[in-house]
Amino acid sequence: MNDETRKNLEVTAKSIRRGIVTALHSAKSGHPGGSLSAADIMTYLYFEEMNIDPQDPKKADRDRFVLSKGHVAPALYSTLAERGYFPKEDLVTLRHTGSYLQGHPDMKHIPGVDMSAGSLGQGISAAVGMALAAKLDGKDYRVFAMCGDGEIEEGQVWEASMFAASRNLDNFTVIVDNNNLQIDGTIEEVCSPYPIDEKFKAFGFEVICIDGHNFDEIEAAFAKAKETKGKPTAIIAKTTKGKGVSFMENQCGWHGKAPNDDEFAQAIKELEVTE
């Protein structure tokens, strides 16, 4: 990746993070920690990797993305707004009565959302179904799903993974946002899914472990996933919960609460773009 592309992605990711905290501050509720940890992966997917068109959100040959950990909808909404699917000004309506930007993604009302999600463990199954549909229809679009590392404690995640590998769905990539924290503490303390990489290998996946905030590693991982044939790919992205906002980083207390006015002001200041 050249320096200009990397810089542009870093600037875009900061803007997306500003959109996340702005939406959550306005809503006075929501999930900042996992939204911020996922922002770099989403930035790369929507600005470099996926075949998509904001002017034609339902085009038949588009790549699909499913946010299986649907509670981090602010990350998806901010990314979609940054990419031009709807006005960035609408982010402040998050979770407000009458807003189309609900607490979880809604494919019926939000441009660019390919699957309604919220019940943990279910999104990856829908994504695998999309990948199978592409194979059955002879289409070459690709399907991406993002799961939380706490979410993969759900058994349905592994049923979907077993099916994806058994059908050789090499057009399917799952990204695990491995920020090591869930609502009640570390994932080891609650119900450890480690070793995550070995589990996906055992289920028949090509497995790639990366720093989920390093755009060079992200680029290489998705390139390898695209080249992999005969089996699906799992990208295990080591991330920092609350990434980019100092007082939120690695704090499970910021899993599901919104910043107050002073916290919001500090977060926005930290997320300013500086040369």
Structural description of this entry:
This protein has helices at 3-27, 32-49, 73-83, 123-136, 155-166, 187-191, 196-202, 215-227, 261-270, and strands at 64-67, 143-148, 172-178, 181-182, 185-186, 206-211, 233-238. The mean pLDDT is 97. It has a five-stranded parallel sheet, sandwiched between helices. The two termini are 19 Å apart. α8 (215-227) links the parallel β6 and β7. 50% of the residues are buried. The chain has 275 residues and is an alpha/beta fold. Helix content is 42%, strand content 12%.
Number of helices: 9
Average pLDDT across residues? 97
In percent, how helical is the residue content?
40-55%
Strand count: 7
Q: Strand sequence of the main sheet, in spatial order?
A: 1-2-3-7-6
* Major pleated sheet: 5 strands, parallel
Order of helices and strands: HHEHHEHEEEHHEHEH
Structure classification: alpha/beta
Regions with little confidence, pLDDT below 50 for 5+ residues = none
| General form | globular
Radius of gyration, in Å, reads 17 Å
β-sheet strand percentage: 5-15%
Straight-line distance between termini: 19 Å
In short:
With 275 residues, the chain is of the alpha/beta class. Helices cover 42% and strands 12% of the residues.
Task: Give the helices and strands, then pairings.
Elements: H1 3-27, H2 32-49, E1 64-67, H3 73-83, H4 123-136, E2 143-148, H5 155-166, E3 172-178, E4 181-182, E5 185-186, H6 187-191, H7 196-202, E6 206-211, H8 215-227, E7 233-238, H9 261-270
Parallel strand pairs: 1-2, 2-3, 3-7, 6-7
Antiparallel strand pairs: 4-5
Helix pairs in contact: 1-2, 1-3, 1-9, 2-3, 2-8, 4-5
